[in-house]
Amino acid sequence: MLARIKEVWVGIEDPDPTVDRKGIKYLQDMGVMVSMFDRDLQDIIRAENKEFIAQALERAASAGEQKPQDITLSSLEETLREVQMDDLSTAALEAYRTAVQITDAVGSVAFQSHLVRSGILLRQSEGFVPTGFGYILFGKDPETALPQARLLGTIFLPDGTQDIRNFEGPQVFAPDEALQWLRDKLLNPIDRSHAQRREVNAVLYELVREGIVNALVHRDYNIAGGKCQLRVTPDKIEILSPGSPIPPITLEQMQSFRAPMLSRNPVLHSVFARMNLAEERGIGLASMQKRAEEAGLPLPRYTWNDPYLVLTLYRSIAAATHDLSSQLADSLDEEERRGFEFIVSKSSVGRMEYAQYMEFDARKAQRSLKRLIDLGLIQVQGAGPATRYVLTIS
To answer: 3-class DSSP state for residue 169?
Structure first.
């Protein structure tokens, strides 16, 4: 760092999960400001370098044993005290082998060597031993050594009671187990025509699944007292993930769903992606906003409630209004409520688009939009003919 470089811009991370983000952390530790390319540029880089990235991943998978790393992102890259190979779930490892299409049998030296190259195991003098990340992913009871390694589910029922379930065991199974639990419990979450309801529900569950995976993959496991949580009310589904966005990603970028891709726990992300439990890098977060808008659901929201990053998914258009303070909700008349519910399902709207939907003339549409601005519900983006109105993020 003798060149006294002050700032470095990074396009995308290294596709090798055992290397990913370590160069960025080195620069940050040396006092260099690191910024990531915007998500749309990252998508272009990945598209233009698709073959090179595939070859890099293939080389990493076929390389020799994992080399020691000078830079450590997490203590979970190392082994945990008294955790051995017998503590891993054969069923979970078999699910991974099948999904990744590994021909070597679970338990074979070749299979375990693959897990070493993926950051799931370490080779020691006494043999193979799980890393902390490997134990979280495939451990029979990872919460035994890592109490924070589980997902807590709570459904708050209309009668004031709660339906509770903890998703323990191998965390690679947690997202699908949680979704099945919700499907069993939430038989009819949206009151619409049958065909439309099925479509909207499918998108809602898709968003929940993506949110759970993101929470498990990107949470800060150093927050030992915090656990990923799934909280369900009649109006919304909240997914809580311990830890703030990882620098240089900001909360504002998360809230606008334009955050560049950067993994806090690259080993976890790589395994979830290979098992088709997470979308390709950079796609999942960006698609959540688009899928919700296409289904006519309110756009998801990210907020910060220390020490949790909270993703809120609304179960219906009206639910976004119900989430307002009672004083603010009561101040809306029927037309204002309808206008607000239109905007919450859009990434942005123009005045003419709003006027057409509301069946207002241009002047009345402008007054209606100003009223929503004055209430702090929406804000102006751009100027002149390019003016758009977006939801205010609190």
So the answer is: coil
How high is the pLDDT of residue 6? 86
Low-confidence ranges of the chain (pLDDT < 50): 1, 65-66, 68, 189-195, 280-283
CA of 81: how far to CAs of 71, 75, 78, 135, in Å? Answer: 21, 12, 10, 11
The residue type at 178? A
pLDDT in the model for residue 207: 93
Question: Contacts for 26-32 with beta carbons within 8 Å, 24 or more apart?
Answer: 26/71, 28/247, 30/1, 31/1, 32/1, 32/5, 32/6, 32/7, 32/8
Q: Reduced to 3 states, what is the DSSP secondary structure of residue 368?
A: helix
For the entire predicted model, the pTM comes to: 0.85
φ, ψ dihedrals at 229, nearest 5°: -130, 145
What is the C-alpha separation between 358 and 372, in angstroms, rounded? 14
Contacts of 124 (CB under 8 A, 6+ apart): 79
For residue 14, give both structure tokens: 């290294």
Pair type for strands 127-130 and 162-167: unpaired
| Other beta carbons within 10 Å of 174 | 24
Residue 259's pLDDT is 85
| % of the chain exceeding 70 in pLDDT | 90
